[in-house]
């Protein structure tokens, strides 16, 4: 299969003027798979109301069939496939959308392709803030199911090159925009019962949610081994080819490693590393946003170094600000 690439970086302010925009929109309407940029990571998008289109997502990614997808919308008026939205959930959606948070809501029967929800009676929905993604959603007029645009289990893609590396020849096309700003997948909030529960941590934290609706969340459990209600919960995710070891609490004293080991951490610890190859992740142990934005890029770059057979990551202090970052590192190291 030929994979088309549409570079829209010079048309971000008005995507309708891009010469090949009709080709992209028709692709969605003809049940094709198209990768799109978002502020979190690049997504692999398809018509969420077409079982044929959604089936292609699972095939292209090699994704387990019980792992549900997130549906992306442009406007809340498109929420004709959900029902019985809790008033507090509505309040949170009104405040945080568009943005990096997905809400798990009760699904209307027979309103979406069954594979979107992996047979569940709820669906995760997000309204992205990325300018290109929003215009594509508006122009095609469809709710788009869009997991990360990578092979299942691999580090998520934060730029066009990552998508092309994993999915060239497997999908219809890639919309090339800017690199993803946040670099980690969205927060997923389970609103199927009250108080709500964070099913996957992201840029929108529990404190931020409770600042808007006090007492709206209960303690999260990211180790739930049941059937996943949101992406990124059950399986080993975000993982490079080499095994990953996490140094809990971070490297704080001289650390000697063999030459075949990559050490990942803040630039501030580089002087402590003896041997191996050091890959800077951010400026220092307080630069959580920098670490989140560059984690997948660094893990993928290590994959291109054939001399590396193991990765050591200097961990960050576990606190609310690092929940999402440490969750992804835990998953990459096959931690629970």
From TrEMBL:
It is found in: Cytoplasm. Belongs to the SUA5 family. Keywords: ATP-binding, Cytoplasm, Nucleotide-binding, Nucleotidyltransferase, Transferase, tRNA processing. GO terms for molecular function: ATP binding; double-stranded RNA binding; L-threonylcarbamoyladenylate synthase; tRNA binding. L-threonine binds at residues 40, 72, 122, 126, 146, 186. ATP binds at residues 63, 67, 148, 156, 200, 238. It holds the Pfam family Sua5_C. This is Threonylcarbamoyl-AMP synthase. InterPro entries: DHBP_synth_RibB-like_a/b_dom, Sua5-like_dom, Sua5/YwlC_C, Sua5_C, T(6)A37_SUA5, TC-AMP_synthase_SUA5. It catalyses: L-threonine + hydrogencarbonate + ATP = L-threonylcarbamoyladenylate + diphosphate + H2O. Required for the formation of a threonylcarbamoyl group on adenosine at position 37 (t(6)A37) in tRNAs that read codons beginning with adenine. GO terms for biological process: regulation of translational fidelity; tRNA processing. Residues 18-204 form the YrdC-like domain. GO terms for cellular component: cytoplasm. Its main location: cytoplasm. Coiled coil: none annotated. Its EC number is 2.7.7.87.
